[in-house]
């Protein structure tokens, strides 16, 4: 009787451990793409320079777009794109997409004054 209880307990413990491992590994599939912008630090910026850098990190992402144009993602998930800005108001949209078609986006508003 005691051996059966120990065997049942170990089986239950193994099943719980397996379920926790699967849930932990599936968290990235469940959460969808994430997008963190490091540059610029604020969603609205006023600039005097003609060149502007959009940089950040994309996780769980298979495709990344800047105003609809695909941009390169490094193997560690980071990206950096240099842009030449016209004088005036510009809206930039960075969009990440995962392999299931789920999307997330960040919008930046940039004013170049000179």
What does this structure look like?
Helices cover 26% and strands 46% of the residues. It is of the alpha+beta class and 114 residues long. The chain folds into two domains: 1-31; 32-112, Immunoglobulins (Immunoglobulin-like). The protein starts with a helix and ends with a strand.
Q: What is the tally of beta strands?
A: 8
Tally of separate domains: 2
Strand content: over 45%
Shape: rod-shaped
Summarize the biggest pleated sheet.
5 strands, mixed
Poorly predicted sequence stretches spanning 5 or more consecutive residues? none
Q: What order do the helices and strands follow?
A: HEEEEEEEE
User: What is the first-to-last residue Cα distance?
Assistant: 84 Å
Radius of gyration, whole Å:
22 Å
Short characterization:
By secondary structure, the protein is of the alpha+beta class. It has one helix at 2-31, and strands at residues 34-39, 44-47, 51-59, 63-66, 69-70, 78-84, 88-97, 103-112. It has two domains: 1-31; 32-112, Sandwich (Immunoglobulin-like).
Fill in the keyword field for this structure.
114 residues; single chain; 1 helix; alpha+beta; Immunoglobulin-like; three-stranded antiparallel sheet; five-stranded mixed sheet
């Amino acid at each position: 009787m005691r051996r059966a209880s120990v065997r049942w307990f170990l089986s239950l413990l193994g099943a719980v451990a397996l379920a926790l491992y699967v849930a932990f590994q599936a968290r990235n599939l469940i959460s969808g793409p994430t997008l963190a912008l490091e540059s610029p630090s604020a969603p609205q910026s006023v600039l005097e320079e003609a060149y502007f850098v959009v940089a950040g990190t994309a996780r769980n992402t298979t495709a990344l777009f800047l105003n609809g144009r695909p941009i390169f993602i490094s193997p560690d998930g980071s990206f950096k794109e240099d842009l030449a800005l016209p004088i005036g108001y510009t809206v930039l949209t960075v969009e990440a997409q995962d392999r299931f078609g789920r999307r997330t986006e960040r919008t930046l508003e940039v004013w170049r004054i000179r």
